[in-house]
Amino acid sequence: MATTAETPEAQGTQEQEPQFNLALTQDQKDVRDWVHGFAEQVVRPAAHEWDEREETPWPVIQEAAKIGLYGFEALQQFAGDPTGLSLPIVQEELFWGDAGIGMAIMGTGLAAASIVGQGTWDQAMEWIPRCYGTESEPKVAAFCASEPNAGSDVSGIRTRAKYDEASDTWTINGQKAWATNGGIADVHVVVASVDPELGSRGHAAFIVPIDTPGIEQGAKVKKHGLRASHTADVHLDDCKIPGAYLLGGKEKLDERLARVREGKKGKSQAAMQTFEATRPSVGAQAIGIARAAYEYALDYAKEREQFGKKIIENQAIAFALADMKMEIDACRLLVWRAAWMARNGIRFENAEGSMSKLKAGEVAVWATERAIHILGGNGYTREYPVERWHRDAKIYTIFEGTSEMQRLVISRAISGMRIT
């Protein structure tokens, strides 16, 4: 039976069909290489010093600002990528350099994400530049959600915000804990309860500038890892702020609270809405740490000799490195998928954001531990960086939702049931 050849028109139609492609664009490659160069030449050489000092590395932040890596314009550039991949790429490369310094540079992004996600356009244009300061005088911002008795249980937030209609002001009282840049930030985004009876659905987020009377830093946290990143309690004692400092505005808040009181579904509450948006980026940070440990251990295993041969020639070492590479690449795919979905407004039907953060955080802890084993006694000393990377990695199974909380979110998403 004779066959009919495809017409040129038909061939053209087939050629125009979209093809599955994981290759980065040239712009994304350029951004990756640019940030990697900064991480390699500026961040890594300073990492040990600032980890030991346990202080904010202002000189490194200023260097990042000078080259355009830290600031409002950088945020716009990375967040503007329609694929959603630029920000995770930047996070991975920077945290490959050092996680403590990386968090000192990127910690402001959590507050900025909250302002963008919950505020109006005018609020974003007013406050995000102030979060970052200027090239000559960089500033930082803090997102204040957790409290001494409200970590994973955000419904337990006790910080209260009360509105006075006559003066159009809010008065905030409470204590925040574990705040990155808390007390040293120029801008604090504070999650507070405006209606305690509604639990987490009665929360709102507020801008509290550092010059507001009544806000002050509490105890600075002495941490296991990320020691170059400042973490502290924040006390708010009768902090009075203008009504315009409520993110999203009073009208929007009143409409949401009215829907909730009527038994209708409201949008995500303030803290969780921010965390949902940032989980892929947090996962990318963990990947950077894991990749740093893997690459260092690989190089070490190819140079270190025992019993007359390179230790990588032993299957135990080679297989461990193979597993590390495989798990890190798998994490990256999960993070990129979640970042792409978030950027393109695709709902996380199966908690893809939580999957990416959970997997990356646990792999970072596992991979850095494997690296210590491969280096042996050297890996346990502070003369080698894998010890620091292992300390830095652990927080990724705890903050912005513990591994257990991520599993709870995922299990609820896949089952459609209220698992407790």
What would you say this structure looks like, in words?
The protein is α+β, with helices and mostly antiparallel strands. It is built from 14 helices and nine strands. It has helices at residues 8-15, 26-53, 58-66, 72-79, 86-97, 99-106, 108-118, 121-132, 250-261, 270-303, 315-343, 352-375, 386-394, 403-415, and strands at residues 141-144, 160-164, 169-180, 187-193, 203-209, 215-220, 231-242, 305-306, 309-310. The strands form three sheets. Strands 2-3-7-6 form a four-stranded antiparallel beta sheet, with no helix packed on it. Strands 1-4-5 form a three-stranded mixed beta sheet. It has a two-stranded antiparallel ribbon with strand order 8-9. A hairpin with a 2-residue loop joins strand 8 and strand 9. The termini are far apart.
What would you say about this model in short?
By secondary structure, the protein is α+β, with helices and mostly antiparallel strands.
